[in-house]
Amino acid sequence: MRDLYRRLGIAPNASQDDIRDAIARCSHAALRQDATRVLGDERCRSEYDALYTTLSDLGRLRARLGLTHAPFWRDGLADDFSLPSDTRGSHHDALRERLMRAVTLHDRWQRLGGVGITVLTLTSAMIGAALTAWWL
């Protein structure tokens, strides 16, 4: 399926007047014919828009997963809804990093907590002994 909006250079929420102007400017006869038939009829356009949304979502998902078409598929109809790979990494990696930082901080507090309890116990014992000696 062609991405008629992209090929005509208009936004998916374009008005009927904008669509008619873009079709009139189009030099490709087959594209002009498809756009007139699909985008010119309100019922056909609403069906096209539903499928357009689904294919756009799939294109975003493929990009997020780092999937792209092989070179021989590029610039064809199969590549209309493809996007460049998303190189930012997945949310899984960011979550894993945050969890690892939390575990590291927890481990540090656990080690410091054990030392702190020992120091606190010894200090309390020494203060108790000093108060007992002073009191007697």
If you had to describe this structure to a student in words, what would you say it looks like?
This protein has 136 residues and is mainly α. The protein folds into two domains: 4-79, Helix Hairpins, CATH 1.10.287; 90-136. The protein has helices at 4-8, 16-25, 29-39, 42-64, 91-135. Helix 2 runs antiparallel to helix 3. It is rod-shaped. It starts with a helix and ends with a helix.
Q: TL;DR of this structure?
A:
This is J domain-containing protein. With 136 residues, this protein is mainly alpha-helical. It contains five helices and no strands.
Summary keywords:
single chain, 136 residues, mainly alpha, Helix Hairpins, 2 domains, 0% strand, J_dom_sf, transmembrane helix
CATH class of the largest domain: Mainly Alpha
The major beta sheet can be summarized as: none
Beta-strand percent range: under 5%
> Which second-level CATH architecture of the largest domain applies?
Orthogonal Bundle
What's the order of the H and E elements? Answer: HHHHH
* Helical segment count: 5
Topology:
Blueprint lengths: L3 H5 L7 H10 L3 H11 L2 H23 L26 H45 L1
Helix pairs in contact: 2-3
